[in-house]
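Summary for the funding panel

The consortium committed to producing paired sequence-structure records for every protein in the target list. Below we show the first two records in order, beginning with the earlier of the two.
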Amino acid sequence: MSRISTVERNTKETKIALTLDIDGSGKADLHTGIGFFDHMLDGFTRHGLFDMELQVDGDLEVDSHHTIEDTGIVLGTAIKEAVGDKKGIKRYGYSLLPMDETLVMCAIDLSGRPYLCWDAEFTADRCGDMDTEMAKEFFYAISYAGAMNLHMKVMYGSNNHHIMEAMFKAFAKALDMATMYDERISDVLSTKGSL
């Protein structure tokens, strides 16, 4: 069964077109207008083994907020649509990801209930051309649009680039695990019978 979703979102602030293949091989074609954000999303696709095409036309003359937040909304929606009824998937995923001096923990429950737990700080305002405060807004948008519990915690680290990159890669690895099929699961992994 194909798990591919195409989502478009057009507002006065952003125009976004995204296609996501959950069962891809890590290919990305990304154009957000924010070089560092593209670099982070490339790490997400490559390490989660997702294929993603993304074109964003945002109001970068204002700042990066709308572009990054709305991309999170669209990506969360695409994840939710691509996973579908969640029958046969593991539902839970986690990653403890090292990157040099940094260690980041990410855990996900594709529960249908949105919630973000965030324990992370940056010591710089920007990484390249991306505002570091937008990392939380991005993952918040994904958690709500994707209807998932998402926990992100920086265990330790000092280099802001490493911290940010470890977050995106940890999220990718956790999502890859959560969306994997398990032949022992014939329906949805829930006592309720639905997610």
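The next record, for a separate protein in the list, is shown here:
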Amino acid sequence: MHATMATDKNRDNELILVDGLDRQVGTATKWQAHTDGLLHRAFSVVLVREGERGLELLLSQRALGKYHSGGLWANSCCSHPRAGERTIDAAYRRVREELGCEATGLREVASFAYRAEFANGLSEHEYDHVLVGDFAGTLAPDPQEVSDTRWVGVDELALALAREPRQFCVWAPMVLSLALQHLD
């Protein structure tokens, strides 16, 4: 598992370390941040569209080879801004890289900090910015990042979170709940 992160094509390798108020206090490699549990800036994107069930949200299933939470469902896209990169710019970039589509009208609706420990010794300690926007284009996910995607209606999502919480990444319920609060 550790080898996958260490050979991550150097994209997003330098993460922005922050304090509890999201002020930058330094940088660290992705590996160091996740092995030492360092608080770093992250973002979670939720893409929406008008679909068969009314408003629908795009969920992504993390690729099995991910350094943690492989095979679990999450919001549309999750990642980290690079050192010196604005969070909003990173979000647009990673939607293209991970999902092969475009996001339009991304806006930050909330932020929160969380910490999670994983069985493989890695951890997430993130100050996570939740961004919501519209889906554009067609999906062409990077199989190293995403193993599957699905569109869910609001009611279907609430039911899945209640009935199958272990099918979701640790951050997904909070991200999706915050996103839902800001959708019309």
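Regarding this second record: The CA atoms of residues 43 and 115 lie 14 Å apart. The two ends are 40 Å apart (CA to CA).
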